[in-house]
Amino acid sequence: MADKKQSKQPKAQSRTSSQPFAKTEQWLSGISVPLMYWTIGIGVLFAMLIFNARILETDNGLYIESGYYYAQNFFGYYFTSSAALYVMFLALPIAIFGINVLLLKSLSILFYAAGLYFLYRSFRGKVPNVVFVPAFIITALNTTILSYASLTFTESFYMMLQSLFFFVFLNQLGKESVETEQPRKNIKGWLSVGLALILLSLTKNIAVAAVGAVVLYFLFYRKYKNAVVVVGSYALFWGITELLKRMLWGDLAGSQYGGQSKMILLKNPYDPNSGQETISGFVDRFFGNAQIFLSSRFMEILGLRGENSQPDLVVTIIIAAAILFGVVRMIKNKERSLLVMALYAVVVSLATFIALHTSWGQTRYIMIFTPFFLIIILYGVYDLMRTSDTPLLRMIFVVLVAGLLGLNIITTMNAASTNLPTLQKNLSGDAFAGYPDEWANYLRLSQWCADSLESQSLVACRKPSVSFIYGRGKMFQGIYNVPSPDPDTLLQQLQRPGTTHIILDNIAGTVYRYMTTVEKKYPGTFVPVRQFGYNQSAAYLFKINYPY
User: Fold this and answer.
1) How far is it, in rounded angstroms, from Cα 206 to Cα 266?
2) What confidence tier does 259 reach under pLDDT thresholds 50, 70, 90?
3) Dihedral through CA 39, CA 45, CA 49, CA 55, nearest 10?
């Protein structure tokens, strides 16, 4: 029944006399449900073929390590590096199965599939099929999105909750006519919206901007009561969450925004001595990130530019103009369901551009908006055809859709073919297959520390959460920067927690700078103990002989 209800076309789509690709639209409408299941099934298959059984990123390991601490003592630990919901969720499988990396990574495939399902349920029938179906398939078979379906980052989990939010919100929106505004009649529904929003912000700090997007949407249509009810519903759940944190974790539960906000406010996140960012600095950051994410990362996700491409102002303007044009057409056509999606994507991405340092310009920060930006851009071209249906516009639309579909499918198939030999080795027991030599040696040394050093020893290193996983739960001390040029201050930072050893790797130069600063004043502080690998790929373990 639900699918039949969703198949009803809105007024904006009922004008068949001016509807481009009318026959294709009708055909896609008839096969949309099985097509959705087939697309998700094929996507899951590719996710398994692209499956990454390795741990490379600090955050990727940090979530697992923190989930382990929750599993060991749920009310004796609180994750404050960022939003804690995903880490808390990981505690459950870790408590049952231990640190099983393959299992934890496999959960992201389930989140990926669930996210696609709710994305379909949210927007099917609210977007022209010739717009929604290509955007849905491109999203499902996109190499970047599939790669995160086997990582323990928050992205797949967040995209599932993001789609669930739209499913809840649009269902609630459909219960009120355009002319009426009576939130009291369905307060349970608005409480569900508030709950969905708090779940988003408990998964990603930046998602608090989604509340602003929803409020902006209601203010735009002068539905002030609904705006107040949504804010009130969110505030209610925020208050309950804060109260539970204080009751269950006490002083351990600091603000989830504390750690990240301090870094965001710095000019240089890796140098606390750099000072606070200025207003002009935030402006520069915004425009810098806009270029990085729109002209580079978003285009990389679509396969239109190579990895780590340089920002391009012209491409940025084109993408921004295409998004703005699509949003304007939605407003003109009173596409209320689509407009809230567009406002969400635009507002949260703009907040991202302001908050993130340009050195943090990772693909995953813009990846979560991929289906929405695709829908907005394709809708703009499609709606233009409804008012000026020319052969040129039709050709542009067909080339755009066919090109993106073909490019994404080919890229994903190539990625699966490339990854399969490494995946087979990982699944057969070779945990280091696929790593660069310097990484493999670093991880072997981390494992050796767990097996060979005394249990009370504490090893400092550049990637402590990754070492924790390959060290089978052994604690490591993190060295993320060189906080002071003073050797005595650096030594005190090592001595205070009882650090006994340090790993020098070739992955980054941070530990090298840390050690050389100390060695210049106190030669012989670091004594070689063990080495894995040679030359540029070597990893070294040193014992620390404190000079005092």
Assistant:
1) 17
2) low
3) 90
